[in-house]
UniProtKB/TrEMBL annotation:
It comes from Saliphagus infecundisoli. CDD domains: Asn_synthase_B_C. It holds the Pfam family Asn_synthase. This is Asparagine synthase C-terminal domain-containing protein. PANTHER family: ASPARAGINE SYNTHETASE (PTHR11772), ASPARAGINE SYNTHETASE [GLUTAMINE-HYDROLYZING] (PTHR11772:SF2).
């Protein structure tokens, strides 16, 4: 398979699309972090996708597309790869730089990279997906734009967003998107084909993103700023601190690298969920300059020892320069749990007769519901 035709590139997680010269230079120098927010598409008759797959790209053996919905049997094109006349070649690998031995320059590099990357996002037309955690709060500190949080009534994220916005003096800029079972069932027929996933975990993340982006678009915004990448790059996961059986690595830096290398499979869900609502996702923490600074952090600036200590040390220290301490030090709550989307998807499926004992009951419910909806539309 070859891409064929003229160059057709799309950018990854920032508004600016890398030009052909940038991609050509990245190929010529085999530079995995050439100073972009990612890219993918057809370039000089070849398919390309950047080292972290920040722009989704799909193939089916005969054709290619940016959306899985445009192909009959889509598979993700591997990150860091080119395809030239059917021969795939891995041309970019995530670098493994030596860690900085001096903490101050390392922290300054992270601070500068974060600030410069968020500065690439125009304020006009942008909103922030704001859960009240440190990742989205730092975006809000840099961007004077409206804030949106989605969750079921009484969920952790809604309360955390309200308290963080109050601490930052931004209460009047926060819009709460209260999720309902009706909104979830309405969203599924559009969301599932768009992301090509129907399992409980992926939907628990994608649904709040989609419904947040939908409201933001209705209120005049065409970009949604996301904090994606911060946990992977800066050691935000418990398993990185504990080095337990959930990771293969035996060192903190190795475990962080393991999480970063998982991004090419995870990011398409988030990017496509937001785009399905007609909004462009932007994720400044996934700019090459931030990735480069994060990869040079020593383990003691990633997590404290023992597993129960603080995580994302460098990120939080930088964030504390811009945020109230209570917000900069707030612990992580994954989106599917903070919004209660996982709990409510389980509840919807069980009410429809799909019990947990059947295994993957949420996905079974969703697939059946979409088949039934398709049959009804055909009958009509």
């Amino acid at each position: 398979m070859t891409a064929g035709g003229p160059t057709e590139l799309r950018g990854g997680v920032l508004p600016r699309i890398p030009g052909p010269d940038s991609v050509r230079e990245a190929l010529d120098r085999t530079d995995p972090l050439p100073g972009t927010g990612g890219f993918a598409g057809s370039f000089d008759g070849r398919l390309v996708r950047d080292v972290l797959g920040r722009r989704p790209l799909y193939t089916d053996g005969e054709d290619w597309a940016f959306s899985p919905a445009d192909l009959d049997d889509p598979t993700l094109f591997p990150a860091g790869t080119i395809d030239d006349d059917g021969g795939r070649e891995q041309v970019w690998e995530l670098p493994v730089p030596d860690p900085e031995s001096d903490h101050d320059p390392a922290l300054e590099a992270v601070d500068r990279a974060l600030a410069e990357s968020v500065a690439d996002v125009p304020a006009e037309g942008t909103a922030v997906a704001f859960s009240g955690g440190v990742d989205s709060a730092l975006l809000a500190a840099f961007l004077d734009v409206p804030l949106y949080v989605a969750g079921f009534p009484g969920s952790h994220d809604i309360e955390a967003a309200r308290s963080a916005a109050a601490a930052m003096g931004r209460e009047g800029e926060l819009t709460v998107v209260e999720l309902t079972h009706g909104a979830v069932e309405r969203a599924l027929p559009k969301l599932v084909p768009a992301i090509d996933r129907a399992n409980a975990m992926d939907l628990g993340i994608a649904l709040p993103l989609y419904l947040t982006a939908e409201r933001a678009r209705e209120e005049g915004h065409d970009r949604l700023a996301l904090g994606q990448g911060a946990d992977e790059l800066f050691g935000g996961y418990e398993k990185v601190a504990t080095l337990d059986g959930r990771v293969e690595a035996t060192t903190v830096r190795g475990a962080v690298r393991e999480q970063v290398l998982g991004l090419p499979d995870e990011l398409p869900r988030d990017v496509l969920a937001v785009e399905a609502a007609g909004v462009r996702p932007v994720a400044p923490y996934l700019h090459d300059r931030v990735i480069g600074a994060a990869l040079r952090l020593p383990p003691e600036l990633l997590v404290e020892g023992g597993g129960d200590g603080r995580r994302k040390i460098a990120f939080r220290r930088v964030a504390s320069r811009y945020l109230p301490g209570e917000v900069a030090d707030r612990p992580k709550k994954a989106l599917q749990y903070g919004s209660d989307a996982d709990r409510e998807l389980d509840r919807i499926a069980r009410r429809a007769g799909y019990k947990r004992r059947i295994g993957n009951h949420v996905e079974a419910f969703v697939r059946a519901r979409l088949r039934d909806d398709g049959a009804t539309e055909a009958d009509e």
